[in-house]
Amino acid sequence: MTAVDVRDLRKDYGNFTALKGITFKVYPGEVYGLVGPNGAGKTTTLRILATLIKPTEGSAFVHGIDVVREPESVRKLITYLPEEAGSYRHLTGREYLRLIAKVYGLGEEVVNEGIEISGLGGDIDKYTGTYSKGMKRRLQVARALMVKPKVAILDEPTSGLDVIHAVYIRGVIREYARRLGVTFIVSSHNMLEVEYLCDELALIDKGVIVAEGRVRELLDIYNAENLEELFTRLVR
Ligand code: ATP
């Protein structure tokens, strides 16, 4: 059974076509990367998978469940980290994570795991309204991971994070995939990150997948030194 099965997705915004037929499959416990230039269609694809917008044509399934026909069921299996997420300024970090855990019917051990992932230490008891951009991001990443969804859909998870925390979060993602079988769909502009993190990737440009496969195989096929070289060669 595939964890995520995306078939010929098309998306129009008015008379602009953002996705022109996106197809890929992701298996349980894999980390799948979406890369591509600004405006390529990565967020649009992720938002369709997260049941926030509907495709104009095509279909997508999460563990066999149709995201358009059964969005409520899909939402029980996923977490979605948007590119920019707010987090209740009037709550402390701990209160926010507790609120999320409660929604999922989970207990204090999950909150503690979230606090660990966030790396916020003593700052967890400060109001989130006082957090820096990176601290807010870490809280959001912690929120998306700690509930251990079947599929985590993360839009640029380490964007704005310092190197230490970015490296740590990548480690947690790999660990959750390997140890807990959580499937990840991750978008990123950081090719080093994608090389470390992703089992497979799709390079999207102007709503079309221009290359897809295992990182090592893609580098071999295109005889590229690294993903940056591959990217700049295939994207115009
Ligand atoms: P980035 O790397 O900059 O985050 P992206 O690959 O995530 O880019 P999308 O956000 O999916 O790109 O946008 C794809 C295209 O669709 C862009 O041209 C964007 O302007 C357009 N688009 C996205 N959302 C809307 C919308 N609500 N209305 C109109 N056009 C939209």
Structure notes:
With 236 residues, the chain is α/β, with parallel strands linked by helices. It has two domains: 4-77 and 149-234, P-loop containing nucleotide triphosphate hydrolases (Rossmann fold), CATH 3.40.50.300; 88-148. The chain is 38% helix and 26% strand. It is built from nine helices and ten strands. It has helices spanning 42-49, 71-75, 93-103, 108-118, 133-146, 163-180, 191-197, 215-221, 227-234, and strands at 4-13, 16-26, 31-35, 57-62, 65-66, 78-81, 151-155, 183-187, 200-205, 208-214. The chain has a six-stranded mixed β-sheet with strand order 6-7-8-3-9-10, sandwiched between helices. A hairpin with a 2-residue loop joins strand 4 and strand 5 (65-66). Helix 3 (93-103) crosses helix 4 (108-118) and helix 4 packs antiparallel against helix 5. 43% of the residues are buried. The mean pLDDT is 95. Bound molecules: adenosine-5'-triphosphate (ATP). Adenosine-5'-triphosphate (ATP) is lined by residues 13, 16, 18, 36, 38-44.
